[in-house]
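ugh ok fine here u go
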Amino acid sequence: MKTILILDDDEVVRRLLRMMLEGRGTLEASEGGEALRLLEARPDLILVDWNMPGISGIEFVQTLRKQAEMPAPFITLTGTDPLEIEKQIEALGASSYLSKPFTREELLQKVETVLKKS
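structure:
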């Protein structure tokens, strides 16, 4: 079973993502430091909220990029207009992104596409 790490500061969003990903193994973190510790579980994919207090999704990914190898592909979740941050998302190596709000079908399609590529 593939494991997906969900990094989002909003508990409701994490719960909705977990429900949307029903049948898949999920790990959850509400902030970047906690997510960094959960990487020991070697998730197959990371869903990262871009704008969070404390260690933001951007800073979390920048920390991962400093490692020799990214531990897993990641999909960026953002409430910001993706056109405004698209170059930044691409520069950090996101496999894909989703603009909030999104449907379960959109999420599952992105997740399946990224997992097949990795």
